[in-house]
Structures are given as C-alpha cells and as structure tokens.
Amino acid sequence: MTDLSTPPVPTIRALDALAAVIAEFNAVRPLETSIAVALDALRRSLDAREVSLWLHTADGLVRTWVAGESQVPEAAVTAALAAGDEVEGVRAAAMTGGDRRVGALVLHLGRPVERDEGTLLRAVANLLAPELAHAERSRQLEVEVAARTAEIDRERRFTEKIIDSLPLGLYVIDREYRVQAWNRKRETGMQGVSRDEALGRVIFDVLSRQPIEMLRREFDEVFATGRIQEYQMESSASGSARTFRITKIPMRLGDSAVTHVITIGEDVTEWREGQHRYAQAEKLAAIGTLAAGVMHEINNPLATIAACGDSLGYRLEDLQQKGANVNKDLFDYVEIIENEVVRCKQIVDQLLDFSRPRQLAKSRVDLNDVVEKTLLLMKHHGGFKKLTLVKELDQALPAVPLGNAEQLVQVLMALMINATDATDAADAADAADGQGTITVRTRTGPTPTDGAIVEVSDTGQGISRPELSNIFEPFYTTKAPGRGTGLGLAICYGIVQEHRGRIEVDSVVGKGSTFRVLLPTIEW
Ligand SMILES: Nc1ncnc2c1ncn2[C@@H]1O[C@H](COP(=O)(O)OP(=O)(O)OP(=O)(O)O)[C@@H](O)[C@H]1O
Ligand SMILES: [Mg+2]
Question: Does residue 419's CB lie within 6 angstroms of at least one atom of ligand 1?
Fold first, then answer.
C-alpha cells in the first residue's frame, strides 16, 4: 500500500508531464474546459486508454467527466480510494477543498498503474481540487441564492396581493416624495394612474390635479411629527360627488426617523350617508315623541281658542242683527283667528305623523293606483292645474306587498305640491306663467329591495347642493312665511322609511328636480 502522506518523488518524465498540464490548465478557463484539458494532457502523457474524473459532491451526487469510452464503476472507485493504491487497474486520488472531500480523480488504465503515474494523478488531483471546491461552493451558493430569491419573490407577491386586495387606494412615498408602492385600487379608482406610471416618480407629478403646496404640507407634517393625519375630501372626479377619508400614516424602516408615508384613501360616501340617515331617523323619532307629548297640551288650548272664536263670531252677528254698528274689521279678525287655528291644528296633525309607535295596517299596494288617486286629489290644486302633466306608468310594475296606500298618497301629494311650487317659483323668475311640466313615472326597479319606483320630476327652479343636504330636515323651508312649514319632505322620509324604502333626489339648479321613491317588492 502506498503511503499517501509522504508522496514519492516524481521522475522527470512525470514532472514534465505535470508542467505541461499546469501550463495548459492555467491558460484555460472556465473550470469545465480546464478539467477537460487537464484530463486530455494526462491521457496523452499516460497513454491511458481511459481517464475518468469523478466528482463526489457533498449532497451525495456524483458528477463525472469522462474522457474515455466507458465509466469506471463507483464501487471500484470507492475500493481504490480506500486502498490508496491501484485496485483492478483503477487508481483514485481524493480531492479536498479545505477540510472537505469534494471529489476524487479516478484513473482507469488497461494495465497496472506505475508509481510515477500515481504521483502524477495525485498532483493533478491537487491542482484541480480548489477549482472543484470553488465550483461546488458557487453551485451551492447559486442554489441557495435562487431559493432565497424565490422566497423573497413569493413574500413580495404575497404582500402585494394583500395591499391589492384592500378596498382602499394605497400608496407609499419616501423622503424625496417618490412613489415606492401603488396598489391596484389606486390604479383603477379616482384619478387612476397605472402602477408603472407612478412608481419612482415624484408624487406631485403623479397627482398633478391636487394642489402641490397642500399635499406637500400634509406629507411634511407626518414626516415632522410622526403622527397619523386624517382628512376628509369631496371629489366629483368620477362623475358623481363622493366623500373620501384620507389617512396619512408614518412608516419607519429603522427605529428612529420617519422614512416613508403611507397614504390610504377610502370612499366613505355610503358610510356618511348611512350616518346621515341614522341621525335623521333619530331626529324624526325624537320629534315624534315630542309631538305625542305636547299633542294634548296644544290641542286643548286650540279647541278653546276655536270655541271662543266661534262664539265671538256669533256674538258679533247677534249684535249686528240687533242693529248695533259693528266694525267690519272685527269680523275679519274673527276669521283670521279661525283660519290660524285650523292651520295650527294641521301642523299638530302633521307632527303627529312622526309619533311612534304608529304601525298602520299594511297590505298589497299597486303604486299605479296610488298615482291615480293622488292625481285625482291634485285636480283641485290651483297651481297644479296650470301645469302640463306627463304620466308614464309601467303597467308591469310589481305590487308593494306591505304598503299603506293612504300614506303613500300622502307622500306623492307632498312631492307634487313641492314640484308645483318649484315650477311656480321658476315661472315667477322668468315671468312665463304655466310653462312648467310635471312628470309622474312608475317603473320596475333593478332588485327586489328597490323593486317598485315612482318618480316625480319637475322643470322648476332646482335645488342647490348645500340646500340638498337640508331639505329632509323637519322645519326646513325656503318658502315664504305661512306658505310652508318645512315638514312635507320630513314626513315623506319617515313614511318611506317605515316602508323600508328610500328617497333619492336628482336636481339641477335652473333646470328642475326629480324625487324618486324606491320601495321593496318583497315581504320583510
Ligand atoms: N321639487 C322641488 N324643487 C325645488 N325645491 C324643492 C322641491 N321640493 C322641495 N324643495 C325644497 O325643500 C324644502 C323643504 O320641502 P318640504 O316639502 O319639506 O317643506 P315645504 O314644502 O317648504 O313646506 P311644507 O311643510 O308645506 O311641505 C322646500 O322649502 C324647498 O326649498
Ligand atoms: Mg312641501
């Protein structure tokens, strides 16, 4: 057995051969080529029939570079390595990188291996070993880097998916105000800008429609204070007016200074309308309770005033019949008292419409019938008669299963009287009497919860945006004192709500308004 720790001194022939191998080896890169060259040089100098280089990798893989015609069986290599000498024409030299075995150089000759040849094999093995170790390390490193990159990629895609799935617009800017993240909603939502267009650009260039100075102040505030800032913003960029809640959140990559600002934009239009409706319902309920409470208190004095007025009238007539000279003014005063008492009673009655509980009987109602009944009553209304009436009734309109026809007539009456007043006012403004048109329309809604729709449109003066938010308030009126109490729409609102429906308004100042009542056609 040869002692591998003290290799024998090689002969000149072997040294020459080794020098040739080294020269060629050093001249050629990369590794695979240098190995091929080294093997070739080895083969030439050894006159070997077969020279094989085997590489045993750390994870058990065996890679081979075979220069000869056939491979040496692995068992023979293992045996030769263990023996440290030739076994059945196979001689193997272990290759180490650091303290790790990276492979073995295996020589397979068709004859016994000579001593010099063994030495030469070891020398070449030592020459190639660091290269192999390096290649092996690079390969492992490559695999690791690829795995880590794939993992980071997965994590990034996961985080991206999360922020893209949010029903909110979200973007992130750094201290140079450059966009570092831009989610899907931000691409499709209001002022939608594609991610490719936004990333890396200065936010003021991207959101060019917003006032730069204001935007900069908002970001700077978060950078400076490190506190979350919240704003509300109205926008009509998408066509209809919508309310957004904008939140700016500080983000720190390290422990100290704010490095980024996350901006979240949330469409809170529905939420705000819900809040508004809730507040409105609360207010109506409060008025209802109040009305119920004071009803008797007011009704009794009113009855007394009415009775006193009546008897005053009789007395005056009596005196006149007896020949007394009664001033005509006194009769007028009595009449005024009577009229005003009637008006007060009406207001009290209207207020009572709010009082709860007041569950009126509900039954199947055909909205087309409700329209016809209302029009019958409106026939006697002076202003309404002068206008052009357009009636478009959907004959296939589904019935409202739980409705109160009387209350719904009351709603339509209130809407038509308002429409008449608005058209009168518009006429007064352009001095063209009787030009207005009122359209009453019924149609089938898109869903069972909005199944039956009745609309009253007018060509009146319209309602401005600030006014729109007030018209359903109890006692809100723009009409001359004595002409409106401001309760009409508030009562409509209450009734429609009791029917689990809703009222919508579209209005353009100077053009006219449409009030739309949507009622459910399913039982609830
Ligand atoms: N079709 C309409 N066109 C324009 N403005 C309207 C219309 N309907 C309602 N409004 C506005 O809304 C306000 C409130 O209406 P609402 O019916 O509640 O009270 P009102 O008509 O003033 O008084 P009343 O209690 O007699 O109905 C009106 O004063 C008017 O300014
Ligand atoms: Mg009214």
Answer: yes
